[in-house]
Sequence to fold (127 residues):
Amino acid sequence: MACACSGDNRSELQSYAARHNHECPQAVDEELTITSYSYDKSANMFVINYESAEKSYTVKKMRVAEMPLRRKIEKNLQNDDLREFSEMLTTADASLRMRFAGKITDDTLDIDFSPAELKKTVNKFRR
Fold:
């Protein structure tokens, strides 16, 4: 029974990615644009792809500031607007990858969150 529920949640993640891809590209701010969403069912990983204009900072500088960036992402995942998405991830026991690609340098940075990290983050706003 748990497998059936997990499978349903994985299908929900796949549908979520498809729905949100229709809205891409999505400007996040002057520097970042979401270019696509994907869900790899076999790896049980949801991926959000960003393009950095690299006007103010390069992907290399983002890599140096990865820990503050991780904390900012965790805080965003606790936001009411993303609550449904965050809970879909945790219910499916999925991992999350935020991939940042530089428009100028073509450099990439992946920030991954394991299922355990996501559960810990989601539990913070349940309190």
User: Anything to note?
Assistant: The longest strand covers residues 32-40. The two ends are 28 Å apart (CA to CA).
